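Instructor's aside before we start: the two examples that follow are unrelated to each other. I chose them only because their records fit on one page, so don't look for a connection. First example below.
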Amino acid sequence: MRRTLNRIIKLQWRRRRRFRAPKGLYVIMGGATGPGKNQVCDIGMGGLSFYYVDRGAKANRDHQTLTVSTAGQPAVVHVPCRTVSDSDAGELLLLNQRVRRRSVKFERLSARHKAQIKDLIKKHVINHGPQ
């Protein structure tokens, strides 16, 4: 119950709204030990979130770079970010593989990055409505 209340409070204080991402929008993060290529859950000008299978790698909360891509395109945007939350989603895929949800906040974005993210949201996401 407390976890749900915390989530509601956090959603109320988000500066920029997020949009539910359609299938085919992926985030690529980390190397061989990172979560790899995963479906984006929601995205906005302030950040994004995605589910991934926990392989035991520790979440790096410091500055990172992630790549957002669409089906059929290798890379759309390379964005600096930091992990805001990395919590257990409560699902098991296999015996020892837990599903987690990671939310990242975009760091200082250049004008080019802002234009790329805005274009990505307009072309691929906006028709799915706010979350």
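Example two begins here.
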Amino acid sequence: MIASVAAFALVPFLSSAQDEPAGSCTAEPLPANLDFTLKDMHGADVVLSEFAGQVILLDFWATWCAPCRIEIPGFVEMVEAYGDRGFVVLGVSIDDPPDALQPYAEELGMNYPVLVGDGRDDLKDTYGPLIGFPTSFIIDRSGTICHKHTGFAPKEAFVREVEALL
């Protein structure tokens, strides 16, 4: 059991980010399904479709995921830099309960919605298969998934892709 968890935790380190040219979407852009309502870490409903029209970084992560922990401070900085230009990060914890999310989010200064994805296979299946963590999607203002990163990606890659869409 521990060996399988450890092996799964290493997947993000072994996965490569799929970098696309700045200012473009992937070769086969896909529509993003934002027809979901999730609970945030405080129990409030968050309707994803209310973020339509913004550039969205939809990040699937977990508290036990080391690469996730490395990426989050960059997302915090990006929200500070681009939030007033129509950029939002939505962090979906894949398997952590709210009581584990609150201290984690406070420790990392997460300044964006932290959503509970535990038990939400419908959402995970829509954006899946999620084969490594973190898995992040950048969605443009028209609701198109323009970029996907599986595993750790440097902040500079996200900045380049987001700036091109703003």
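The radius of gyration is 15 Å.
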